[in-house]
Write a structure and sequence with these properties.
With 336 residues, this protein is mainly alpha-helical. The chain is 55% helix and 6% strand. It has helices spanning 20-33, 45-48, 55-71, 87-96, 101-105, 108-120, 128-142, 156-172, 217-225, 239-250, 254-266, 271-297, 300-329; strands at 7-12, 38-43, 79-81, 148-150, 182-184. The strands form two sheets. It has a three-stranded parallel beta sheet with strand order 1-2-3. A two-stranded parallel sheet has the order 4-5. The chain is globular and about 75 Å long. The structure holds adenosine monophosphate (AMP). Residues 12-13, 15, 21-22, 25-26, 152, 189-191, 200-202 line the site of adenosine monophosphate.
């Protein structure tokens, strides 16, 4: 009999379009993991409410993110929308009571995000939800008994909290019930802004700083052509050149990567050659994703229904967990 596959769980907030950094740093890896693990991926719309957002955009952005994940190779049966599975919020409430206020106070991301808010607007409102959202993350993970959670370094502390909550719950209710989720660190491809390679590629830096994987090919070419290479003040390979080599590798152009790297080492590399290979690589990488996205957008209803169905299916596991948890904590009597 074949061994049961381990469970992988990861989630993303519906914050507009996925960019090349999201794809190469996270989503491509999610798609690859599906070959080896039982994967469940969520678009976590409730999390978006913890920072200022526009109500009129939330629904649209949620579906958009779900469609973009499908276009990037996430199987529809592995994908759910958090708010379609209300058990997450119910479990979050229960777990909040096995987690001390002091423990939540240690979360550095709360402080960072609260500061970010204050920086933007000194009267900004730091919500209770922002403080509490690591508990919701723990619920997102523990409800599916995830063995592994693919994360970046910025999420290590939150995953530790999920593990602590699982341990505390198991101890308090005297049963090894929740799995202790482990981080899954894969090759860490940090993609830098082409316009400012001192910074991580991100939408918040502005239009010219991120590559839209669903965008126009000519725009991608233009962005690569104008990418900053050497600023003259770094020792060894500059961050901009390193970023271009990373992009070449990530787009699978290994032969060009080796040859151009040899040129670099000999001091004969022409940046225009490197850029032209990177541009071709990125255009080839993004084309099938964009074509699939167009296909999905031409029949949104069909794909919405698929995701609603998969959310319903995934919900069965969430319901089972919540029922068992309610019995353990004394809310529900199994005989009732
Ligand atoms: P965010 O919406 O910024 O929270 O990003 C969603 C996911 O994409 C997270 O797993 C991030 O670590 C990843 N990500 C975002 N920007 C980059 C980048 N420039 N390079 C690599 N990974 C990134």
């Amino acid at each position: 009999m074949s061994e049961k596959k381990k469970n992988v769980l990861s989630c993303i907030q519906p914050t507009g379009d996925l960019h090349l950094g999201n794809y190469l740093g996270a989503v491509k890896n999610w798609a690859d993991l599906q070959k080896k693990y039982d994967c469940t991926y969520g678009v976590v719309d409730y999390h978006t409410m913890t920072m200022p957002y526009k109500a009129k955009n939330l629904r649209e952005n949620t579906w958009k993110m779900a469609f973009q994940l499908l276009a990037c190779g996430i199987d529809d049966e592995n994908l759910f929308i958090q708010s379609l599975i209300p058990e997450h919020a119910e479990l979050c409430w229960i777990l909040g009571n096995v987690c001390s206020h002091g423990r939540l106070n240690l979360m550095t991301q709360f402080k960072d995000k609260a500061l970010q808010l204050k920086d933007k607007d000194k009267d900004a409102f730091v919500s209770g939800g922002l403080f509490y959202y690591p508990v919701m993350q723990a619920a997102d993970i523990l409800i599916y008994h995830a063995d592994y959670v693919p994360i970046g370094k910025d999420q290590v502390q939150h995953l530790e909290l999920s593990r602590d909550i699982a341990q505390r719950f198991n101890h308090q209710f005297d049963k090894e019930y929740f799995t202790h989720p482990e981080p899954l660190f894969t090759k860490n491809t940090k993609i830098l802004s082409l316009a400012n390679p001192e910074k991580k590629m991100s939408k918040s830096l502005g239009e010219k700083h991120y590559v839209n994987i669903f965008g126009d090919e000519n725009r991608i070419r233009k962005q690569v052509k104008s990418a900053v290479t050497d600023t003259g003040d770094s020792e060894g390979m500059s961050p901009g050149v390193q970023n271009l080599f990373d992009l070449l590798e990530a787009s699978g152009r290994m032969e060009a990567h080796t040859t151009l790297l040899e040129d670099y080492e000999k001091g004969t590399l022409r940046y225009s050659d490197l850029k032209s290979e990177v541009a071709d690589g990125l255009v080839e990488l993004c084309r099938p994703i964009r074509e699939r996205y167009d296909e999905i957008n031409s029949d949104k209803k069909k794909f919405k229904n698929k995701i609603k169905d998969s959310s319903n299916d995934i919900r069965k596991t969430a319901r089972k967990t919540l029922r068992e948890v309610k019995e353990l904590v004394g809310i529900l009597n199994p005989k009732d």
